[in-house]
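User: I'll paste a sequence; please echo it back and then give the predicted structure.

Assistant: Echoing your sequence first, then the prediction.
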Amino acid sequence: MSVLQIEHLTKDYGHNRGVFDVSFQVEKGEVYGFLGPNGAGKTTTIRHIMGFSRPQMGHTFVNGLNSWESASDIQKNLGYLPGEIALPESLTGTQFIKMMADLRGIHDMAHTNYLISKFELDPSSSLKRMSLGMKRKLAIVTAFMHNPAVLVLDEPTSGLDPIMQDVFIEFIKEEKEKGKTILLSSHIFNEIDATCDKISIIKDGRIISTFIADELRHNESKSFEFEFTTTEEFERFSREIQFFNSIEVISLKSHKNQAEIRVNDKDINSCISIISDFDLKFFAEIKFTLEDYFMKFYDRNSNTEGGTNNNVINRN
């Protein structure tokens, strides 16, 4: 059984805002990336998983429990890191940590102290005077302090400096090694790409692509760019390329004597043999990234509709 299960979740706020027929599952021990810009529907989905909001249609479950009906039971064994942090400003960080420990029945503070040290948190000052980055660190500590098996993280590194973002990514990898089940919602490609086993892209409240992360990392289709030493060599390539069925031309730039091509892995040797017959200034692979794939759906001219489940990354 899936640890997190979202089935046809719909919450329509009007004016094309909300989430519409969203479905996905997060398996035990899996880190699942939920990728999209602000306003795409990530937080709305998470609020339903947490039981903060009631669906108009569909259901969400955590360990088989209905999120809306069993929210209090679910939250006892789940770590939640909200995208927007609201903390009681009358307390110090130390007092807030103690309050959360008391609520969760935590008596051994060894793990909490480990987290405080790891994220370089100084909890002594008042929450009212804490910087956004320090508040984010405090939220991380209190989300993980009871060592939960399930984690729901909404824009977890928002407000952290780049060094702390890297610390957090390494920490998630450690939690993953321990078998934790993690839903990581973000618009930051690096943290999704570095940690996730499976990824869903959401746009305008609809899931538009779901895929195994390794399929993207080990995409069978490779792209290359190169420049010819002379215009004559470029023009010869332009004439002869039509006879090379294993090579797909992406672009030819006559003013720069440059070309960009796409080749399947199985045809790489044949491609290299063909290209080596031309005099080149440079030849380089163009790495296909998560951001490249994401922008196919978020290109301003894209008319991609929701509801697709693209398990196979571009293999043409």
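Residues 300-316 have pLDDT under 50 and may be disordered. The longest helix spans residues 162-177.
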